[in-house]
Amino acid sequence: MASFLTSFLALALTIFSYNLPFNDALQVTYDNRALKINGQRKLIISGSIHYPRSTAQMWPSLIKKAKEGGVNTIETYVFWNAHEPNYREYDFSGNKDLVQFLKAIKNEGLYTMLRIGPYVCAEWNFGGFPVWLHNMPNTTLRTNNAVFMREMGIFTKKIVDMVKGEKLFASQGGNIILAQIENEYGNIISHYGEEGKKYINWCADFALSLNIGVPWIMCQEDDAPKTMINTCNGFYCDQFWPKNNNPKFWTENWSGWFKNWGDRDPHRPAEDLAFAVARFFQYGGSLQNYYMYHGGTNFGRTSGGPYIATTYDYNAPLDEYGNVNQPKWGHLKELHNLLYSLEDVLLYGNATNTDYGRMMSSTVYEYKGKKVCFLGNANDKDDITITFEGKNYTTPAWSVTILPDCKTEVYNTARVNAQTTVMVKKLSEGPLKWSYRPETVMHLKFGDKDQSSVLIDALDAKQLFDQKTVTNDTTDYLWYMTSFKVDENSPILGQELTLQVNTKSHVLHAFFNNKHIGSQWAQDDGKFEFSFQRNVKIREDINTISLLSETVGLPNYGEFFEKVGQGVVGPVKIVEPNGEGLDLSKNTWTYMVGLHGISKGLFELDDRNKLTWHTSDFQTDRMFIWYKTFFKTPAGEDSVVLDLKGMGKGVAWVNGHNIGRYWPSFLAKADGCPQCDYRGNYGGSKCGAGCGKPSQRWYHVPRSFLRKGNNQLVLFEEMGGRPQEVRVQTVTVGTICANVEEGNTLELSCQGGGRKISKINFASFGEPKGSCGSFETSHCDATNAMPVIQSACVGKEKCTLHVSDALFATTTCSKSKRRLAVEATC
Ligand SMILES: *[C@@H]1O[C@H](CO)[C@@H](O)[C@H](O)[C@H]1NC(C)=O
Ligand SMILES: *[C@@H]1O[C@H](CO)[C@@H](O)[C@H](O)[C@H]1NC(C)=O
Ligand SMILES: *[C@@H]1O[C@H](CO)[C@@H](O)[C@H](O)[C@H]1NC(C)=O
Ligand SMILES: *[C@@H]1O[C@H](CO)[C@@H](O)[C@H](O)[C@H]1NC(C)=O
Ligand SMILES: CC(=O)N[C@H]1CO[C@H](CO)[C@@H](O)[C@@H]1O
Prior knowledge:
The protein has 826 residues and is α+β, with helices and mostly antiparallel strands. The chain contains 13 helices and 41 strands. Its EC number is 3.2.1.23.
């Protein structure tokens, strides 16, 4: 069995280690089983990487690691609001250089799935739509609406023409094999009635009219027009049966989950993800895409919401910084290589399914005398033994066993032999030397704009406006300001009064007569609205109210999501104890977009306004304050992060690059971090970690944002924090572990960067217990595992060992249970 396994995997690897030739046009078609390339059915294993969620400098290495992990295709959306931030002003620079990204994929010899949308959802701000589009008169998004369809048409055509111009479609000799129009419209179509149906048919006709020469897909859209391939999205898609004789495609296999401010760290166990993939192929699947393969970072204001965090790590096979996430990456890699080696039998063979009850099934594929078998156990509690073709097999609960010759068990999704890697943070610099500068609190004095020097472009109106329509979403921040006059004889003077602000702000900071009276933020309850109420002391004559309203990511999902109000929607009232009150909603409101410090460019590298920053009387735990410091670029290649523990909420810039919103004071829920059992259906809140800790403490600073020598870090802190606790750190491989069954291969690697295995902390062959970080020997283990592993691994960047009892002293452990557990330090 052992030798068979080794040669088998070696074969699988050679099969995959060729570069796809992209010179000649490829003919891409499909039938009821699979996508066909030049007439040949093709097994597609794809991974999502969203180009603006990393940097152009990171792309080649991300794509390479994805290829090494055994994906043959990269998928991305196209992000409209990143490319057309203002009407007819386009941006394809830096990490928005779509063509460069597509070429990087092609250069690695991988295929591309291009999901143009241009609605993308994707936890991306406003689902990818530019807010100016919503602000155009008479626009309703994602339905049969003239303004919307005209603009969607113009943008989509622009992208298609750009890609065609570079000859990137497979039909032109490029590597793009599929394109997508719209996105998950089936989830919401019922809310749009006949107009929705007209729209989706228009989408199909419009897409076809672009003549790209490769098929179009529509994901999660059961009523997709016949010219489109309807595909499945979800945590599991084995029970998805396409219509219209279409092949079974899975365009979003959620490899983990995203994080909101206040959420635990999402974690989808490798065993469960591999189970979902193996089952999909057991039941006739032929194309699947990991959403995400690399999640990355929501830089700047790109995160959707409300409340999508800055990290978009997604617990994907490549982590936020681009490091391989082990054992997930390695466990899936083994599965991918095995599946490729079975491609012809899986895609051309006939399948026979047998049901054994208790959720146990087998599938036999037969083609030209070759046979491949799957044993699938979807029982979430019981391991099940069946007699299959004359032999007994035990399949662990919630797992799939693959027998490439229908006799030998080569892969089981619940048996993880890949190494586990624990990444650690290393201090590079800190504490840092800070200077500070208060942000200006806007207010009106005596009814006139005496702060006209800072009230640039102030707008007056006798109404409360939706925040998006005033800011065009150019900033998170909008001031709503008003004043009212109280006569000396007014009965409300001297009474206990309450200021009441009904708002759809995500965060509200309120000032009365230029004094801060409170801050409040919305609960993450799906509604995101609240009533802010505080006692206020009215004075005779003029009183002023200043409300700083903030958005923390615009909605990206749901029917009519663009119509959800944002900002101070009102009413705004001064309420007397008897409930009567003064309604200020129709008062004259003065609007001021953004912050003073932002308009003055305090975060920019060249201090063009030469404003003073203070160092004496250093201020901490204070709201509305700017902090500035400098730090050195950490040596080496490891990813760089800022540890912002101790800070409240705000925005961080490094050398003028906005690295995103930070909010470490928003803690993850204290409960719901139980022991993780991979068995049973996964959901976004299962297996979470980090309960009660900051929902995001570390913030990625891509190396390409750094300079030789000193780097400038600027923080705008709006709640109050302690910058002296901020640290610059690097992320590196700490402990590595493996827990390999006899007959398999131990592979330990420090994952590059020239690092070597320095120490073996634990090694035991037999029936060692526990997991990485807490292994223990058992009574029957061999006595010499430590020296064997030390001599094989210490001082090496990588070591490989075929695990067999011949290597070790005798053990009394039962033959079927023997395994080798190792923990090492890089
Ligand atoms: C918007 O729709 C209204 C009502 O159908 C119409 O009167 C108005 O002219 C439209 N405005 C624009 C700019 O198309
Ligand atoms: C699969 O089954 C169909 C119908 O039973 C048969 O016509 C075909 O030859 C079979 N193909 C293979 C590869 O066995
Ligand atoms: C399989 O297991 C059954 C039940 O335990 C046993 O009776 C049978 O002999 C086994 N068959 C083989 C081939 O080992
Ligand atoms: C928002 O867009 C409108 C229409 O293009 C424009 O008149 C207005 O100045 C913009 N406001 C801001 C703050 O960008
Ligand atoms: C229905 C739904 O929420 N779909 C989303 C599934 O998850 C991915 C990422 O988490 C989104 O991009 C989909 O649109």
